[in-house]
Specification:
The protein is an alpha/beta fold. The protein has 16 helices and 26 strands. It binds S-adenosylmethionine (SAM).
């Protein structure tokens, strides 16, 4: 498969692995409503934030939506990743500008996107998919990069979204009315879209001209280009006309016997004259529960950019509406993505959250069907995150709660979100564990870096166990901060015969992290133990 190369590629393809793990800290004052709802709004650069979230959510996210800078030359995005490469370091801190001034604009964009797309893939569940908004500036590069990271075979579609419905006569060349939404699955053999609820327009196509007691129907062709098992035969219409066979080059869809059976059941429509070419009746009551999503999404169904701005202005007070500069997406667009790609309990991740449209769409979907979907939204700009994203989500939550309280029809909608900020890295520059890191923080990190899976739910603090979990029959133990109750320096953190005897029993192989080990090599071998020393043998990134 041909692959794309660009300035800085070598330095970034593994960058997501080098980014240090940080901690996230919740700010209760900025959070809202029920903290147990599982929704998160994270303020910070998404590469760092994603790395911090990975130990908790790896392989658990069903739907990722991102709307990154399109690299039009008119946005003010800055490439600022801490990549140790000469050619990249000179880009840092400069606004990525117009083509004429900035010949490396595409290189910078690719360097920014590659590690983020790579780490996002680690969040997807096996039946998950990622949806990426983009336009013609970078779609070709995005597709190449996605083929490399997600695999060409997992490409699903490039959806066309009609973002604008009136022609711009001032356009220099053609008036551009669409964006793309590029979709890749983690595994195309597994991922399947949900059907879209039938719209009234779709239902109106079903009529009942013959008052069939089975209700409204629409009709389909009885002939096809494929022979199936049916063939070519003549048919006598109830009105007396004989049709010598299907149209030229085609075949009847059904055998003669099947045809007669359908006609007897009044499933064949011969037209009002009873002499037309036969058509098969398809009853609304019998068609699939919904419609298969297609690749062109019209603004009437999923909204447009104007609608998106209005929605934002209805939820956030701006001093001057010109400051709605982030190009929000309409909630209906996100509702469509959520409808086709999530279940009622899915996690939806948006790491370029902007004004929080994804968060609002998740809340709206839950309000509509009583679901318990959770969102994780990440926004880098503190000003946007605190004053726009958070405010919008607050307004929406308050509105929904009020509406359900007043309606008396459904259960009160009581949700919320935690507002988190990035804290310090788990390890300091000398490789030592940061003094404020707790047992729970480090245990989560150790379990994930050891097994690649999020740590299983741990018992309440009082009963914290040194056995963190078992994956593929390998048990992971963690001796840290006097976990066995001995608070003396190093007490319980050193693997001795006594400590081993106190550990919860696991008959299979064991990985034990501790500050030291007094057991000999042959004893470790006999007990099936791999010992790893804290902090040196904990993976730092
Ligand atoms: C086009 S906007 C997204 C708009 C969003 N879909 C909405 O409906 O409001 C892109 C957002 O990504 C944010 N962003 C850019 N780089 C980021 C990064 N490295 N980490 C987190 N957010 C970032 C920008 O601040 C901006 O708010």
């Amino acid at each position: 498969m041909p692959t794309l190369d660009w300035i800085g590629k070598k330095a970034v393809v593994n960058h997501h692995r080098e980014v240090p793990y940080r901690l996230l800290r919740c700010d209760e004052k900025l959070s809202m409503g029920d903290p147990g709802s599982g929704n998160l709004l994270v303020e910070g650069d998404n590469l760092l934030a994603l790395k911090a979230l990975l130990p908790y959510y790896a392989g658990q996210v069903k739907c990722i939506y991102i709307d990154p800078p399109y690299n039009t030359g008119n946005e003010n995005w800055i490439y600022n990743d801490n990549v140790n490469s000469f050619e990249i370091r000179k880009w840092l801190g400069h606004v990525v500008g117009k083509e004429a001034e900035d010949l490396s604009r595409d290189d910078k964009w690719l360097c920014m996107m590659y590690p983020r797309l790579a780490v996002l893939r680690e969040f997807l569940s096996e039946d998950g998919a990622i949806f990426i908004s983009i336009d013609d500036n970078e779609i070709h590069n995005l597709r190449s990069m996605m083929n490399e990271i997600y695999g060409k075979k997992n490409f699903i579609a490039s959806i066309i979204w009609q973002k604008i419905f009136s022609t711009k006569n001032t356009a220099r060349h053609l008036s551009e009315s669409h964006d793309y939404i590029v979709v890749y699955s983690k595994n195309a053999n597994i991922w399947r879209p949900n059907l879209i609820e039938r719209s009234d327009v779709a239902n109106k196509r079903y009529k009942n001209p013959d008052n069939d007691p089975r209700g409204p129907w629409t009709s389909g062709d009885c002939s096809a280009r494929n022979p199936y098992n049916a063939g070519i035969y003549s048919i006598k219409c109830p009105g007396g006309r004989t049709i010598s066979g299907p149209p030229k080059g085609m075949y009847w869809r059904f055998s003669k016997e099947k045809f007669e059976e359908l006609d007897k059941d009044k499933r064949i429509w011969w037209g009002k004259s009873n002499n037309n070419v036969p058509r098969l009746k398809r009853f609304l009551s019998e068609v699939k529960e919904g419609v298969t999503p297609d690749t062109i999404w019209f603004h009437k169904e999923v909204g447009n950019t104007q609608e998106a701005k209005k929605e934002l202005l209805a939820t956030v007070q701006f001093d001057n509406s010109a400051s709605v500069f982030i190009s929000p997406k309409p909630t209906r667009l996100l509702r469509r993505i959520i409808e086709i790609s999530t279940n009622k309990d899915s996690i939806i991740l948006d790491s370029f959250a902007g004004t929080g449209t994804t968060g609002q769409a998740v809340l709206a979907a839950n309000e509509a069907d009583g679901g318990k979907r959770r969102f994780i939204c990440i926004e880098m700009e503190s000003d946007i995150c605190q004053n726009i994203t958070k405010t919008r989500l607050n307004t929406v939550l308050t509105e929904y709660k009020k509406r359900t309280e007043n309606s008396g029809e459904h259960k009160i909608f009581d949700s919320g979100f935690r507002y988190c900020k990035l804290a310090y890295p788990i390890f300091d520059k000398t490789g030592q564990i940061h003094s404020e890191v707790t047992f729970a923080d480090l245990a989560t990190h150790v379990f994930f870096t050891e097994t690649g899976e999020p740590i299983p739910k741990q018992p309440k603090k009082k009963e914290t166990s040194p056995l963190l979990g078992i994956v593929n029959d390998v048990a992971v133990y963690f001796l840290f901060n006097g976990i066995l109750g001995d608070k003396r320096a190093n007490g319980g953190n050193i693997l001795t015969s006594k400590v081993l005897a106190e550990l919860p029993v696991h008959k299979g192989p064991k990985v034990i992290y501790g500050e030291g080990c007094r057991l000999g090599i042959s004893r470790l071998k006999r007990e099936g133990i791999i010992f790893k020393q804290i902090p040196y043998q904990i993976s730092v990134s």
